[in-house]
Design brief:
Layout (H helix, E strand, L loop, with lengths): L1 E7 L13 H9 L5 E4 L6 H10 L3 E9 L2 E6 L11 H10 L3 E4 L12 H6 L6 E6 L8 H11 L3 E4 L12 E4 L8 H6 L2 E3 L10 H14 L1
Parallel strand pairs: 1-2, 2-3, 5-6, 6-7
Antiparallel strand pairs: 1-8, 3-4, 4-5, 8-9
């Protein structure tokens, strides 16, 4: 059985919100905490590309892209996609690279999730839908996401959205084998969602990391 997390952030996220290093990702895989990880930094793919070259298919190259309509993740990318496009256009750019369109924290407002009306207009472009987010204990729209996924028969996952090491390994999806771009959706259709919220103190990771990165840049 393969434990896969499709939504994580590393130390190079441009907003400074992540603190997980290359060595941390290697440790997660070596220690069996996870078997496959998508690194989905904000508007950046550099670290994901580097680790994919080193570790192969156990690392999926992803990016959490800031669209005009909210945040969207591209998986199995070849290069970084620029922010600022519409959600529809961003999905087209992901598919042009042969990637998969993943919708993170749908319907949220604080974390800029894509809203229902927008998703309904581009539902055919959605490959994977995040039904459970490990950092959505208070702000998540889990019930709404579950109903929407059922209505449109979407492929669903649970992911951590981890911004620090302690957020890894609690929330993930279990599938039968190591995925490829072609097999991931079908594997997820039979997957089991591990729905655990992150510890409360890990919610401070983005703010703490942002301040730390800002201080380091000033030195």
């Amino acid at each position: 059985m393969i434990k896969i997390d499709l939504h994580t952030h590393s130390i190079i996220s441009p907003d400074g919100a992540g603190s997980i290093t290359k060595q941390d990702f290697k440790r997660f895989l070596t220690n069996g905490i996870l078997d496959c990880i998508a690194i989905t930094d904000h508007n950046e793919t550099r670290l994901a590309l580097e680790l994919h070259k080193e570790l192969g298919d156990r690392i999926i190259v992803g990016e959490e892209i800031t669209t005009r309509d909210g945040e969207m993740i591209g998986l199995f990318l070849q290069k970084t996609i620029s922010p600022g496009l519409s959600a529809k256009k961003t999905a087209e750019e992901i598919h042009k690279q042969g990637g998969l369109v993943y919708i993170p924290h749908p319907f949220e407002t604080f974390r800029k999730g894509i809203q229902k009306k927008t998703l309904e207009k581009m539902i055919q472009d959605v490959d994977i839908f995040e039904a459970f987010n490990g950092r959505g204990r208070f702000r998540g729209k889990t019930k709404e996401a579950a109903l929407f996924a059922e209505e449109y028969q979407l492929v669903i996952v649970a992911s951590s959205d981890a911004h620090g090491s302690s957020g890894i390994g609690n929330t993930y999806t279990v599938i039968d084998s190591l995925p490829t771009r072609g097999s991931l959706s079908s594997l997820l259709q039979k997957g089991q969602l591990q729905k655990n919220y992150a510890s409360l103190w890990t919610y401070a990771y983005p703010a703490v990391n942002f301040v730390r990165h800002k201080v380091l840049r000033m030195r």
